[in-house]
Write a structure and sequence with these properties.
about 240 residues; Alpha/beta knot; 60s Ribosomal Protein L30, Chain: A; seven-stranded parallel sheet; three-stranded mixed sheet; single chain
Length: about 240
């Protein structure tokens, strides 16, 4: 909620506040920001707040806001602050908690844009937004009809596309393209990358595992890969 108001990317029409809540710390900041932005704050009962919210445990504050803006795929391919783009694409991720965690990781790691498939995947729901902890307010996102076609379009635009899969031919720690325009593609929970998406990628990388388990949760894998790429990228020139 606080990031929604701070980012200023979309209009906030009203903030609903649990009348029984103590206006301290973060809630007080939200109310102050809403006042500064001339966003009405309405106190309601807890039952009313729960009926307005589309998530479990709304934590006492809910906003009514405009939809998130979408960015065209070709715009995500442009340099950002003097650096080549660093993109993240998700292939069939259906768990809203995982997608929200991935978006939070991506924003913190400096990802400049996210590619989301329109079909057979979770979209930006209230649950995803809550799990992302404000990241959706800063990340540019492109919604595409089919990820394999989008991968081809990214490659045509000069972006290296790297899939992440247990069977990858190169370690994510040895990526030769980490400092270039790059898009990291993460597969679905359990199934991993789809066959067609993997075939369209320039290369497929894996995360070395040294324990007994054979895989990482998609959000954990995304954290490892995103930060490995972020570690090797040049600083901004602005």
């Amino acid at each position: 909620m606080r990031e929604l108001l701070l980012a200023g990317r979309r209009k906030v029409y009203e903030v609903f506040l649990n009348a029984e809540m103590d206006r301290a710390d973060i809630v007080g900041d939200i109310v102050d920001l809403a006042d500064e932005l001339r966003v009405p704050v309405t106190e309601v009962s807890r039952g009313r707040l729960d009926s307005i919210s589309h998530t479990e445990a709304p934590q006492g504050v809910v906003a009514r806001a405009a939809e998130l803006p979408h960015t065209a795929l070709h715009d995500l391919c442009e340099p950002v602050d003097g650096r080549p783009p660093f993109l993240l694409a998700v292939d069939g991720v259906t768990d809203p908690g995982n997608l929200g965690a991935l978006l939070r990781i991506a924003e913190c790691a400096g990802v400049t844009g996210v590619v989301l498939p329109r079909h057979r995947a979770v979209h930006i729901t209230p649950t995803v937004t809550k799990a992302a902890a404000g990241a959706v307010e800063y990340l540019r996102m492109a919604l595409v009809g089919g990820l394999p076609t989008a991968i081809s379009d990214l490659r045509d635009a000069g972006v290296w596309v790297v899939g992440l899969d247990a069977g990858g031919e190169v370690s994510v720690h040895d990526l030769p393209v980490a400092t270039d325009a790059v898009c990291l593609v993460l597969g679905a929970e359990g199934k991993g990358l789809s066959r067609l998406a993997a075939q369209r990628c320039d290369l497929v990388a894996s995360i070395p595992l040294h324990g007994h388990l054979s895989s990482l949760n998609v959000a954990s894998a995304g954290a490892v890969a995103c930060y490995e790429i972020a570690r090797r990228r040049p600083p901004a020139t602005v």
